[in-house]
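Quick note —
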Amino acid sequence: MNLTSKIFLLVVVSILALGCRKKPHFGDKSLLISANGRYLTTGDGKPFFWLGDTGWLLFSKLTREEANTYLEDRKQKGFNVIQVMVLHEVPSVNVYGDSSVINKDVSKPAVTEGNNYKDEKAYDFWDHVDYIIDLAEKKGIYMALVPVWGTNVKEKKVTKAQAKIYATFLAKRYRDRNNIIWLNGGDIKGSDGLEVWNEIGETLRANDPDHLITFHPRGRTASSQWFHNAKWNDFDMVQSGHRRYDQDTSAKEKLHYGEDNWKYIESDYKLKPTKPTIDGEPSYEGIPQGLHDTTQPRWMDSDVRRYGYWSVFAGAFGYTYGHNSVMQMYKKTDLKPAYGPKDQWITALNAPGAVQMKYLKDLMLSRSYFDRVPDQTLVAGKNGEKYEHVLATRGEEFAMLYTYTGRNFSVQMGKIDGDDVKASWFNPRTGKTTFIGKFENKGIKEFNPPGEPANGNDWVLILDKI
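Predicted structure written out below.
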């Protein structure tokens, strides 16, 4: 067969393949795994950078009017995923006093037959959930739903048989809504209730084949420890947790990385088969370091930035932010708030870290997307430890290096295309980019970030092919 015939045959086969390809169930609003298995895309093939917020108690704590305020704020700040519990407790009760299940049995959802959830007076628990999910959809926000929080399973409040019935109910109720993602688990080790978690995952997959599913694990653990090879699991999630290096209690865990959340991502990135991974719960802004002692220092915006850039540059497909007050929708009328929140949720919406998260998302979407890989060989010489560690990522025509402390560091040039590159400093606090010069794309070059070295003087060096 001559070359012309081969080319013709290749074109015909390609056209037939495209013609036979199944159209995504929700069209352009579908969320899919990218062809290289590293990222998420929408149904039309565009990159989807997951910028999540933990609004765990949204369904139970906020009125419809308050929910609209919250979701609109997150939309304006660039968030496109809200992680929320369906059932925080068994039973859960919403702000209107309506219970979720009958007789503390998750297999018996307390559904009010004949209700229209769009009716402003229909405050049935499940109608309220439906209303908020649809409200989010109108704002372009996906809802990552935790069916039942892990504590309930660990305390034997949910059996395998109950889980199957409940997961079937959830899947059938929400499988036709385009903005659903399933977060099995909920701050729990997969080994605590393994049969129940697999039952929920398998049942969701069997009854809802078109939505993504993952597992939200316990702090300082990764879902891949238990479910990487599970057929129902589409992508991996880690919870890097809320403790300082010196507070770490996970020495006996398989993965023992302290605050270095990039190491969890790096570990997942090496697994086969290839699956996307993300830090779904790093330290929350405004929460005490170590969680339970409210006299401890609080995690700040600089910390949530560090976790974000570290994990994304290490290969994560997105990042989930959280704030102590917002995740529990804290109000001054709450009798027993957790972890000593200081601001009400309505005020905490505008915390510095929440405002700054969109700069990370915008930066990653500003260059070619699907060819991006982590590449620590960009860092020349000896890299620093802990807060001094520089993380690097690149595509074919760009490279980015993140320093949390703003110390000088050296770059091995020649890792991207082009004889010359232009260099810029990107400020994670403001989203502003400052051009600093053009350089020959070979050898080793030292760069000096603006300002004096200090925790929180973080910068991204951007190198672009000329």
